[in-house]
Amino acid sequence: MNGAQDLGGMMGFGPVRPEPDEPVFHGEWEKRALAITLASAALGEWNLDMARHARETLPPPEYLTSSYYEIWTKALARMLAERGMVTPEEVAAGRALMPPVPTRRPRADADTVARGLAKGTPYDRPAEAPALFSVGDRVRAKLINPRGHTRLPRYIRGRTGIVVAVHGVFAFPDTNAHGLGEQPHWCYGVRFTGRDVWGPDAEPGLEIMVDCWEPYLERAA
Amino acid sequence: MLLEKGYVDPAALDLIVETYETKIGPRNGARVVARAWTDPAFKARLLADGTKAVAEFGFGGRQGEHLQVVENTHDLHNLVVCTLCSCYPWSVLGLPPVWYKSAPYRAKAVMDPRGVLGDFGVFLPPSTRIRVWDSTAELRYLVLPMRPEGTEGWSEERLADCVTRDAMIGTGLARRPGDAA
Lengths: 221, 181
Known about the structure:
The structure holds two protein chains of two kinds.
Chain A: H1 28-41, H2 48-56, H3 60-64, H4 68-82, H5 88-93, H6 110-119, E1 124-125, E2 138-141, E3 160-170, H7 173-176, E4 185-193, H8 194-198, E5 207-213, E6 217-219
Antiparallel strand pairs in A: 1-3, 2-3, 2-6, 3-4, 4-5
Helix pairs in contact in A: 1-4, 2-4
Chain B: H1 10-23, H2 26-38, H3 40-48, H4 50-55, E1 67-71, E2 76-81, H5 90-93, H6 98-101, H7 103-108, H8 113-119, E3 129-134, E4 140-144, H9 156-160, H10 165-169
Parallel strand pairs in B: 1-4, 2-3
């Protein structure tokens, strides 16, 4: 969706402001926000693409004025509410009013979480069809505006680039975010020139590499 | 409330925080870079398959499942961003800094990377091309910065001290001998 998360090429935010000697967490609540987000995900009620979609469906003014952990926490509250796990009434009351609902996976203990962090969650899948494109092919990012989740950023839609890598087959976010299954597709590294993306005023020599699933691309002449 | 309702285990929460506060951070990536600077065979393995090569250090797991390492040279400087969210190679850099997740960086990196570098006080010669990696899928990118001059014969340990987090994102360069730490 064309939400506030899709920021590439926007102007007016001012300079990037790195924080000298930035701590890993700014206060206890950030620790808690990270930990409950990861531990809740371990319950198996949503996947990473659903979590990303919950974050990007925050209204743009709210997204752009929230810190990143605020975005995570607001999205978590929404996903918990959608599943009846923690109701908005409970959030308002600040305490549990309903018994917990069953979840797909049981509560993760520290050992399970440690194993999960160490193992990760690979998203590559076996190929079931040959790749449509090869390294060197000219491709165009489709001019599309999906209403749901997508990982095709707006700034390359309709632009032409060159396939520089065939990464393999990966779970497809556009379906996976909506409970329609992983429907894995080939994923490619595509190189765009600054000029092709931003026009004649682009920084000379700029190249932008974007990873694109096959359904995002069409062959270009 | 998640604790009260029994959805999450307090010990699991503590473990997550402890992992990213004390165990997994940019020191991981710095060790990898220092090895690549001193061991050409390792560097070749690292550029061929980042995930497998960093596993030699025991690094891997969450947000490092599919790692690709990209090399800076005099002619080409790499910069990593995630314009759509905050994708970042946790296994080798830990959690991303606030600026990496912020709108100014995500908006500007793909259009005006030299401007971004300027915000970090980094100025590259006009002859150096810039290649920006937008982490839109499940691959995570780590920049292999150029080894600073004047570090010939240094140990891996000492070299690793030159490798800043920003150098591995591409918003910085490795520290030269004599630069302030």
